[in-house]
What we know:
Elements: H1 9-21, H2 26-29, E1 39-46, H3 48-65, H4 68-75, E2 90-97, E3 100-107, H5 113-123, H6 129-146, E4 156-160, H7 169-181, E5 186-190, E6 194-197, E7 202-205, E8 210-211, E9 214-217, H8 230-238, E10 242-244, H9 247-254, H10 258-262, H11 265-270, H12 275-284, E11 289-290, H13 296-302, E12 306-310, E13 320-321, H14 327-334, E14 338-342, E15 348-349, E16 358-367, E17 370-379, E18 392-398
Parallel strand pairs: 1-18, 4-5, 4-9, 9-10
Antiparallel strand pairs: 2-3, 2-16, 6-7, 7-8, 11-14, 12-13, 12-14, 15-16, 16-17, 17-18
Helix pairs in contact: 3-12, 5-6
Amino acid sequence: MKLMENETAFVRDFLIFVERQHPWARSAFSHPSFTSYFVSQVTLPLSKSEQDAMTAAILALHRVRNLPGYQSAVLGRSSLPTPPFESGFMGFDFYLTAQGPRLIEINTNAAAQLVMAFLNDFHGAAPGLAQTESLILDMLLAQFKAVGRFETPAFSVILDQGVNEQKTYFDMALHAAMMQRWGWDVRVADVAELVWDTGRQRLVDSVTGRDIDYVYNRYCDFDLTQPESAALRQAWEAQATVISPHPIDYALMAQKSQLKQLSNPEFLQGVGVSEADISAIHQVLPPVKLTSDFSPDALWAERRQLFFKPQASFGSRGCYRGDGITKKAFDHVLTHNYVVQPLFVSKTITHAQLPSPMKFDIRAYSYAGTVQGWAARLFSGQVTNFRTLGGGFATVVVD
């Protein structure tokens, strides 16, 4: 593989390992979107008690997701169909604080699960590539079986917008290479390349002219309301294509404003959640509010203990720590739809190979009530940013 800008000795060793052990992945990791900022040589220790608390909450949240009372309360009279399968590639992000793990976000298209498998193999940790690949294949086949399809999809796409400019293009290419190893016909596609064939009720890839059976959806129009998503939405409404992650799980789990209800024990009791599950969720998810729950003066007075996050954002865009927010930014928060969370102080990690102590969060990958793997994301600054050498995704080792 060719040298990259700011390539570290660790990344060089990691890429040599990939090339020798898994040559089929070489092309993906050679793409310019993969940089030394994306993976860290550090292995991050996680206590069994911290892992147990996060796991209990994740499994509880999956059970909440499937309760008829909860779905009715959240989805209401939505016209979107509810498929008989949960989204794949779910991610639950936590800070580790002195008071224990704190859930900061739920994602329906969490990246880098496959990258973590390679990184774990490099460090001799679990789950490695063989286990992760098996989990992903079983997950995708289960989604097909749930809709009565028992054959391998004839043609699939891994989808995003402006794919060639995406910072995680290599991750999508890696998934495509893995699926091709299974014998699947798949390519990384741009949402603009999809066409809905009204007469045949099929989603079509305009580049190849092929009907699309499966979409691994990385596009961040989570509820499929943007004009660019028109063909994808029509396919979803007609249930003509298996799409995962999908809009229903975004509404039920990952829409940021939904954290308000998920952190409210009275609401959870009202939709039939067990006391044990309420306790598990409450242990990691303190109350979340909306800006509309505060008067401007009260919110300003409390700002230093709060974190502000746009309801419709991703990748830490538009987020503000209350202890450093300017009056101009605060006025912006007041006039837009923001979620208000407690400002958690995460632990930091000090390591001989790091230029300075780094902050980190913990990501759990899950599907249908099963935790499939863990990752840490090391960073400097306000939020995860993949701009610091030594930072990036890191292997988690449970003590």
